[in-house]
Design a protein that fits this description.
The chain contains three helices and no strands. The protein is mainly alpha-helical and 64 residues long. The longest helix has 19 residues.
Length: 64
């Protein structure tokens, strides 16, 4: 996403949704949506992207 402030709000909403679901205030579907959003955000981080690139590089080298 282009707007970090908007993304931070969505992250906070996601955490709040997970907590509300654990407290029994929201249905499980909301927790699932929140979990998917959190996983996507983690996958977008620079660290994970570097790990993925390194794994692809190792995989390509093994095939040679």
């Amino acid at each position: 996403m282009q707007h970090p402030q908007f993304t931070h709000w969505l992250d906070a909403l996601s955490i709040g949704t997970m907590l509300a679901t654990l407290a029994g205030w929201l249905p499980s579907l909301a927790a699932l949506a929140s979990l998917i959003w959190s996983c996507i955000r983690i996958l977008e981080t620079r660290t994970v992207q570097d790990w993925i690139a390194r794994l692809h590089k190792l995989n390509r080298e093994r095939k040679k």
